[in-house]
Write a structure and sequence with these properties.
By secondary structure, the protein is an all-alpha fold. 62% of the residues lie in helices and 0% in strands. The chain is elongated and about 55 Å long.
Length: 216
Amino acid sequence: MNKLKRSHIFYVLKEKTPSPTTELIYKTPFELLISVILSAQATDISVNKATKRLFAVANTPEDIISLGLNNLKKHIKTIGLYNNKAKNIIDTCKTLVEKHNGKVPNTRESLENLSGVGRKTANVILNTVFGEPTIAVDTHIFRVSNRTGIATGRNVIEVENKLLRHVPDEFKKDAHHLLILHGRYTCTARNPKCEICIIYDDCEWNDRSKRSNEKN
């Protein structure tokens, strides 16, 4: 895909959604961090339901440590892999209190040293909380990037590196959320909605014409 097409794709996506952001519900950087940890292999809807209960009783590192592992599990037991996530959250809270005065750090190294925080989660926090032009590649972004031709790659690191290299600077801060939203609601894994896709003309997916014709 050439530079002109990429620029037009992000221009169109941004025009539709001028202020894209996460669909996770949070009030503080810490709440977002916990929500993103919980969101691995879980939907934002399910995470929001769980955190609504959790944050009502504990929404700081100190509060969650006081809550304790077993009580934390009770609040997030509807989330997949909740046992392991609960342990990671407790460990993360302890690290935040002991090393960062209870605050969410703003460097990749410090974030990735937290339990349950990998590159993708660190990118989300750096982008959404601190406004850095990072692009966290989840399943939606990986699919959209490869399918459309925006940034093809065999793994998330390849796709991330190509996105950082090719996405125009003016769109880098919002690219993460623009691509997620497009993948979540239009360029879905099953039955992508090519017939209503706003970037259809720039998309390089070989099957797009066939799928669009099937709907007409």
